[in-house]
Every structure is written in structure tokens, then in C-alpha cells.
Write a structure and sequence with these properties.
The chain is an alpha/beta fold. Helices cover 49% and strands 19% of the residues. It has a five-stranded mixed β-sheet. InterPro entries: MULE_transposase_dom.
């Protein structure tokens, strides 16, 4: 679903956010899948295209994305929709489907989902300064993975984390990268 104005808005920015929401859809569907774009005027992500999916396998997500892409290109004649950056959760089917639909786009993990994964791992760990760690991670969620690693190393030393705690954090970051 989308209005012509929303379809047009989805192309105004070269960056989109793709996400599935589970708790707001009828029982026969798995999730409400939404494509959002960053609106420079309001400084917010605006939902542009959404649809209900029955599962979140690569073929299903691919069908949704291809439909959305065809819809945008049909309404906005002579336009080829290829966002330069796609932010999404760390689910492999979603990553694969987006890479197939938008082969020239850079796919990045969503900062919100990355932070959730780090927070879950921190909760299980014995790290004493969890709130400081989370606050610091939140401060650089818009950075690339490489820049995040670089900054993590800088402030991990300042927090005086033990070697095994640092290794655990680095392993988690590497695991998240592999899921991309």
C-alpha cells in the first residue's frame, strides 16, 4: 500500500529503511513490512510503502520488494529506483532479498537492531559498566561498522574492561557483520 505522494517521497532520498513489525498484523500474516525514507524537512523516517507478508523467507520478502519497486517505477515513469543505502534488521532473508532487488545499493544493519543485540549480550555478560557501554554505543550508531570497531577499541581502554570482555564484544561485532 502507498499513495502516489508516498511513492514519490520514497525516491527523494537515496537512503531507505526496511523493517518488519510483528505485533500489529492479523493472525494470518507474520508481519507488516515497511519501507521508509528519511525526510530531510522533518528530520524523521516516513513510512512510504507497506504490506503484509505471510512469512519472512527470502522469496516472500523478495516478492514484496519487487512489487514495491515495480510500483514506484510504474507511477514515476522513466525512473529506476536504486537507493544508495538500505538500512535494515540483521535477518539474513531480508538482507538477501534487498541485495537481489537493489544490487547496486549498500546494505547496512539498522542501528536500533544492532543496539538491541549488543544490549542482550551485555545483559548476559558480567561487564560492570553496562550503562556506560550502552550510552557510548548509542552515540555512534550512525557510523560504519569499521568506524564503530575503531571507536570501541578507543573507549574500551578507557572503561578498563578485562581482556575476555573485550574479546567477547569483538566476537559479537564480527558475528553481526557476518549476518549482513
Amino acid at each position: 500500500m502507498a499513495t502516489n505522494q508516498q511513492l514519490s517521497l520514497s525516491t527523494n532520498n537515496n537512503q531507505i529503511l526496511v523493517d518488519g513489525t510483528y505485533l500489529v498484523c492479523p493472525r494470518e500474516y507474520t508481519s507488516l513490512y515497511t519501507i521508509m525514507t528519511f525526510d530531510n524537512e522533518t528530520q524523521m523516517y516516513i513510512p512510504c510503502i507497506w504490506g503484509l507478508v505471510t512469512d519472512e523467507t527470502t522469496p516472500t520478502v523478495l516478492t514484496f520488494l519487487n512489487y514495491a519497486k515495480r510500483l514506484v517505477e510504474r507511477i514515476l515513469k522513466n525512473f529506476k529506483w536504486n537507493p544508495s543505502v538500505i538500512n535494515l534488521d540483521l535477518a539474513k532473508p531480508s538482507i538477501n532479498a534487498n541485495k537481489i532487488t537493489f544490487p547496486f545499493s549498500k546494505v547496512h544493519g539498522c542501528g536500533f537492531h544492532f543496539l538491541q543485540a549488543i544490549k542482550r549480550k551485555l545483559m548476559k555478560s558480567k561487564i560492570e559498566n553496562q550503562e556506560k557501554v550502552l550510552k557510548k554505543i548509542k552515540s555512534f550508531m550512525t557510523l560504519s561498522t569499521e568506524e564503530i570497531k575503531k571507536r570501541l577499541e578507543e573507549w574500551i581502554n578507557k572503561l578498563n574492561l578485562k581482556t575476555n570482555e573485550i574479546e567477547n564484544l569483538n566476537m559479537e561485532i564480527e558475528n553481526l557483520e557476518k549476518k549482513k
